[in-house]
Write a structure and sequence with these properties.
Layout (H helix, E strand, L loop, with lengths): L1 H21 L3 H13 E3 L21 E4 L2 E7 L9 E4 L12 E4 L3 E5 L12 E4 L3 E5 L12 E3 L4 E3 L4 H4 L6 E3 L19 E3 L6 E2 L12 E3 L4 E5 L1 H4 L7 E3 L4 E4 L12 E3 L4 E4 L11 E3 L4 E4 L10 E3 L4 E6 L1 H8 L5 E3 L4 E5 L12 E3 L25 H6 L3
Parallel strand pairs: 3-5, 4-6, 5-7, 6-8, 7-9, 8-10, 9-11, 11-12, 12-14, 13-15, 14-16, 15-17, 16-18, 17-19, 18-20, 19-21, 20-22, 21-23, 22-24, 23-25, 24-26
Antiparallel strand pairs: 1-4, 2-3
Length: 395
C-alpha cells in the first residue's frame, strides 16, 4: 500500500515538474504579447497565424526556447519573396533576458531601434535589414558585449556610428550599408572582426591606420565621402579577400604589396589616388578597378594576368606591355579598359581579331588606335587625345 502511494506521489511530482518546465517565464510571455501587438503581417503574409497565446508560445513560428526562456526570435517568413511585416519594434524586446538571436525579415518595420535592446546581455546576433528603421543606432548597444553580428543594412538610419559599437569585443560582422549615417569611422577593437560593410552612407573624415583590425577579410566603404591617405591602413589588412573603397575622396599612393593579398575583387575607382602602380609579383586578382584616379607612369606587365582590368581615366604613359596583347588574343583577359590616358602605343596588328568574350578600349590616348574596338559610351566619340595635351603632359 505504502509502495503504491509512493509511486503515485512520484508520478504527480514528475507531472508537475514537466508542466513547470514547459511553462514560459511570465516576463517573456508578456514581452511576446507586446511585440505581437506592435507588429502585423503585410498582405500575403501569414507569419503570425500560429501566435495564439492560449497555447504554448514556444511553439510559435520564429520563437525558440530553452526551458522557460525565449533564446531566439526570428520574426517574419524567411522564404525569398515573402511580404514581411509592418509596424514598430516594441521596447518590451529588452525584457527577453535570455535572447541570443533577433532577426526580422525585410518588410516595412518603421520607427527607431529600441534602446532596450542593450539590456540583452547574451545577444549574439542582431539582423534587421531592408526595412525602414530610422533614427540613430543607440550608443547603449555597445553594452551588449557578446554581440557578434550586427546587420542593420538597407534602412533609414541617421547619426554617427558610436565608438561603443567599435568597442564590442566579440564583433565579427558589421553590416550597416545603405543608410544615411554620418561622421567618421570609429576604431574597431575586436580582433575577430572579419566583415565591415559601410557602403552607401555619408561618412566623412580620414581612416586611422589602427582603426581596422588585421583580421578583416571583407571591407566595403564605397559611396561615402571619406578623405585622406589609406596606404598605412591597407598594408595591415593582409587577409583581405574583398576590398571596395570606390567613390570616395581618398588620396595618396597605393602600396604595391596589396596586389599580393588574397583579394578576389579590388575596387579603388573614382578617388584621387596618385603615383605609380608597382606590384612585386604577377597579380592574380581576377578583377582590379583603378579607373578615374590620378595614377601615372608606365603600366606594369605584372598586371597582365588580371582577367578584368580597368585603368581608364588616369595618367598612365608609355607603351602597353606586349604581355597584355598575348593574353588578350588568347581570351585570358576579358576586359581591358585603357581609354583616357596618355599611352603612346600598343604592339597589335590591325588585322588582329579580338575574341568575342574579350573587350578592349584604347580611345583618347596619345596614339591612333591600331584597330577599332567597341568602347563604353562614356569613352566619348574622340579616338585620339589632342597633340597639345600629349606634348604638355610629363606624367
Amino acid at each position: 500500500m505504502r509502495f503504491t502511494q509512493l509511486i503515485w506521489c512520484l508520478m504527480l511530482l514528475l507531472h508537475f515538474s514537466f508542466f513547470t518546465e514547459a511553462m514560459l517565464d511570465p516576463v517573456d510571455f508578456l514581452s511576446l504579447q507586446a511585440i505581437r501587438k506592435s507588429l502585423h503581417d503585410l498582405p500575403g503574409s501569414n507569419f503570425f497565424h500560429s501566435w495564439d497565446f492560449t497555447s504554448d508560445p514556444c511553439g510559435f513560428a520564429g520563437v525558440y526556447c530553452d526551458g522557460d526562456k525565449v533564446i531566439s526570435l526570428n520574426l517574419g517568413d524567411p522564404r525569398a519573396g515573402s511580404p514581411g511585416l509592418s509596424g514598430r519594434i516594441d521596447p518590451a524586446i529588452g525584457k527577453l533576458s535570455a535572447l541570443t538571436e533577433l532577426s526580422i525579415v525585410p518588410g516595412r518595420i518603421m520607427g527607431a531601434l529600441p534602446a532596450t535592446i542593450s539590456q540583452l546581455k547574451d545577444l549574439r546576433f542582431l539582423a534587421i535589414s531592408r526595412n525602414y528603421i530610422s533614427g540613430e543606432i543607440p550608443a547603449s548597444l555597445g553594452e551588449a558585449r557578446r554581440l557578434r553580428t550586427l546587420d542593420l543594412s538597407y534602412n533609414q538610419l541617421t547619426g554617427t556610428i558610436s565608438p561603443s559599437i567599435g568597442s564590442l569585443p566579440e564583433l565579427t560582422n558589421l553590416i550597416l550599408c545603405h543608410n544615411h549615417l554620418t561622421g567618421s569611422i570609429p576604431p574597431f577593437l575586436s580582433q575577430s572582426l572579419t566583415r565591415i560593410d559601410l557602403k552607401r552612407n555619408s561618412l566623412t573624415g580620414s581612416i586611422s591606420p589602427a582603426s581596422l583590425p588585421p583580421s578583416l577579410r571583407y571591407l566595403s566603404l564605397a559611396w561615402n565621402q571619406l578623405t585622406g591617405p589609406v596606404d598605412r591602413v591597407l598594408i595591415r589588412l593582409n587577409q583581405l579577400n574583398y576590398l571596395d573603397l570606390s567613390l570616395n575622396r581618398l588620396t595618396g599612393t597605393i602600396p604595391g604589396r596589396i596586389f599580393a593579398f588574397p583579394i578576389t575583387n579590388l575596387q579603388l575607382q573614382r578617388n584621387f589616388f596618385y603615383g605609380t602602380i608597382q606590384p612585386a609579383n604577377q597579380v592574380t586578382i581576377p578583377t582590379v578597378d583603378l579607373s578615374y584616379n590620378r595614377f601615372s607612369g608606365g603600366i606594369s606587365p605584372l598586371l597582365s594576368s588580371v582577367e578584368n582590368l580597368y585603368l581608364n581615366s588616369n595618367r598612365f604613359t608609355g607603351e602597353v606591355p606586349a604581355s597584355f596583347v598575348d593574353r588578350l588574343l588568347s581570351a585570358s583577359i576579358q576586359t581591358l579598359y585603357l581609354q583616357h590616358n596618355f599611352l603612346t602605343g600598343i604592339q597589335i596588328s590591325p588585322a588582329a581579331e579580338i575574341p568575342g568574350s574579350s573587350s578592349l578600349c584604347l580611345q583618347y590616348n596619345c596614339m591612333v588606335p591600331p584597330l577599332q574596338t567597341p568602347c563604353p559610351l562614356k569613352a566619348g566619340p574622340q579616338k585620339t587625345r589632342p597633340t597639345t595635351q600629349c606634348n604638355e603632359w610629363r606624367g
